[in-house]
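Collaborator request, handled under Task 6.
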Amino acid sequence: MLIQSQPMSIHIGMPQLDYDHGEMFQQFDLLKKVAAGEQPQSDFYKISKLIKEWSQYHFSHEDELMTKVGYAGIDGHRREHTKFINQISRFIRVYRPDMSVFVTQFHDVCERWHHNHIITMDRNLVSFIMSCDIGKKNSALSSTFDPFVERNPSDRPPIDVDIEWLG
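Structure tokens returned to the collaborator:
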């Protein structure tokens, strides 16, 4: 079964976010191999959980940047992140090893969502950052973020409370 793939990453002009996006698309390629039968179906759980963890890490990174610069669209951006994490959680919960078509659907939803999110919401965020005063812009551009550092600020909505299908 052949699955059409999006580009490995979509560059938005902010190296640390571009790196995160590239890592995410590499994980989608692993998922595509499971869907194509090039890796065992049993790898679905490991890969899907890695995608969820990386997404949570990356969304925390974006959240930190949005907070630093006072991004006006932060609430909507956070809502979209929460919807995606909820979607992944739902897919992981309902998956069964005999559902190979399901892996293809999961891959397609993840890759399409990230592609659309990057070219719309993330590009808008980067445009906003670039329009900020030099202090805020430099703060965002010099931001460092360590992979997989557990961050769950109390002002963030809890994950898995409002499942919504992303189609």
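The cover message to the collaborator said: "Residues 18-141 form a domain with the Four Helix Bundle (Hemerythrin (Met), subunit A) fold (CATH 1.20.120.50). The chain has a mean pLDDT of 79. Please let us know whether this matches your experimental observations."
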